[in-house]
Amino acid sequence: MIIEYDGTDFAGWQRQDGAVSTVQGEIEAVLRRILQEAVSITGAGRTDKGVHAMGQAASFMTGSSMEAGRLCHSLNSLLPSSIRIMSLIDVDGDFHARYSALSRQYRYMLRQRESAIFRRFSGYDRASHDLDQLNSRASVLLGRHDFKAFSKSGSDTRTTCCTVSEAQWFREKEFLVFQISANRFLRSMVRYLVSATLRFSGEEISYALVSRQPIKGLLPADPAGLFLWEIGYASAG
Amino acid sequence: MIIEYDGTDFAGWQRQDGAVSTVQGEIEAVLRRILQEAVSITGAGRTDKGVHAMGQAASFMTGSSMEAGRLCHSLNSLLPSSIRIMSLIDVDGDFHARYSALSRQYRYMLRQRESAIFRRFSGYDRASHDLDQLNSRASVLLGRHDFKAFSKSGSDTRTTCCTVSEAQWFREKEFLVFQISANRFLRSMVRYLVSATLRFSGEEISYALVSRQPIKGLLPADPAGLFLWEIGYASAG
C-alpha cells in the first residue's frame, strides 16, 4: 500500500508500546479490526516524530481473501483523516516493502516568511539563501559516503554508509525545497543535511563526512518541513 | 494589519463571550497585554468557524505610540502560531478596515482525491467536473443580485444584495479553485455558491437569485477549503 500521512500528531511511523499514537500502530489496529487477525506491516522507511509522508510504502501478509479495493476503502473509513491509504494492491509473496525498495526520496519544504497556513508543513528560515551556493554544498553529498556525522547518535545500524543519487535545492512558489534520494537513510539524516547545507560550507560538510565527526552546533531541521516523498522499486511490485 | 490564519481550531473570526476561541478574540487579548489598554479591532470580513484567511485586514485605535514594526513583532511572539500578523502599519484616523474596504476576494480549494496533507486546507469532491461548465454556471453570479437564497437564514443584514465582480473556477496543480470577488458577502455565501456551481445548473442558480428561494438540498461546502484571500482598498490606506 501507498500511504499519505500528516505526521504532526504522531510519534513517528514505528509502532510503540503503550498509549503513544504512531502511523504504523494506527494502521495495524484498523487492519486487525477489519481482517480479524493480527497483522504486522512493514514500512519502506521509518519517519521521525512529526515527519510527514506523501508516498510511504508498506506491505503485510494476510490469510484473508478480501479484495484489495474493498480493503483499501474499509481502511480509509476507519483510519483517522490524517492517514490516507492512496492505493493497495496484491503483490507476490516475495515482495517486501523495506527490502525490495531500491531508493527512498525525501523532500524538505522551507518557508522564508511567517505563515499560519504553512507552519504545519514547512520549516522556517528567514535568512536569504543563494540557490547556486546551496546546490554547490548539496553536491558534496552525492555518491557513497559514511553519514555517521549526520545521524542521531545511538542509532543502531550495521553500517552508516549510504549512496546518495540526488541532492538538490530548488524553488517552488514561495518555498525553498530540498530533494534528496538515496538507497537508505540514517535516523534524522535528512533533517541534519537540510540544516548543514543551509548553514555550513561545502568544505565543512565534506570534512564531517570524512571524519565522521558531527559539525559543532548543527541541529536537525524542524520535522514539520520533511516529507517521505516516494519509494522506488524495481517494478510495480 | 494584514492577518493570515489557520481557522481550523477557531470558532470563526468574531469575538464571542465565554471560553470560545476566535481569531479576533485572540488578537485583542494579546494587544491588550502589550498595549496595557482595552483594544477593539475591526475586521474587513467575518469568517465562519473553520474558514481560513491569507489576507484578512483589521484596524484599531490606540493611545499607544509604540512603533508599528515593534508592535507587529510583539504580536507574533505572543499569538498562537495559527495566527500571524503579516504586516502592521499606521493609518489615517478616518481609515476603517471594514467601511473603507471596496472589495473582498475569497478562494475555495477543492481536492479531487483523498489527502491526509491537504484535508485541513481543502474541501473534497471526487466527482469529475468540466471547467467550462463550472465557469458557465459561475458567470450567472456576476453583477448585482440578491443573494438571499445563498446565505445562512437568520443573518441579520440590512440588505441581501451584493455586487459580484469576479467568479471563476480554475485549476491549480491538483486542485480545482473557485475565486470570487464582491463588494460584500452574506454569511456562508461563498460556501453555498461553491456547492451550487458544482452541483446545480446555471438556470437553477439564476432562478434562486431571482426568486430568493434556497435551492432544495443545497448545503454549504466544507469550511476547510475556504480562504478570505484579499481585501481591496482604494489606496494603501
Give the topology.
The structure is a homodimer of 237-residue chains.
Chain A: E1 2-5, H1 23-35, E2 42-43, E3 52-59, H2 68-78, E4 83-87, E5 101-111, E6 123-124, H3 131-139, E7 143-146, E8 161-172, E9 175-182, H4 189-199, H5 202-211, E10 226-233
Domain Pseudouridine synthase I TruA alpha/beta (chains A, B): 2-100, 140-233
Keywords (chains A, B): Isomerase, tRNA processing
Binding site for substrate (chains A, B): 106
Shape of chain A: globular
User: Strand share of the residues of chain A?
Assistant: 25-35%
Q: Give the C-alpha Rg of chain A.
A: 19 Å
As for the CATH topology of the largest domain in chain A, it is Alpha-Beta Plaits
Helix amount of chain A: 10-25%
What structural category arises from helix and sheet content of chain A? alpha+beta
**How many helical elements of chain A?**
5
Number of domains of chain A: 2
- Biggest interface and its residues per chain? A-B, 19 and 19 residues
Question: CATH homologous superfamily of the largest domain in chain A?
Answer: Pseudouridine synthase I, catalytic domain, C-terminal subdomain
CATH architecture descriptor text of the largest domain in chain A:
2-Layer Sandwich
Any idea of the CATH class of the largest domain in chain A? Alpha Beta
Uncertain runs of chain A are none
Q: What is the averaged pLDDT score of chain A?
A: 95
Sheet with the most strands of chain A? 10 strands, mixed
What oligomeric state best describes the polypeptide chains here? homodimer
Spell out the helices and strands of chain A N to C: EHEEHEEEHEEEHHE
Please give the alpha-carbon distance between the first and last residues of chain A. Answer: 10 Å
* Count of strand segments of chain A: 10
Family (chains A, B): Belongs to the tRNA pseudouridine synthase TruA family.
Keywords (chains A, B): Isomerase, tRNA processing
Organism (chains A, B): Prosthecochloris aestuarii (strain DSM 271 / SK 413)
Subunit structure (chains A, B): Homodimer.
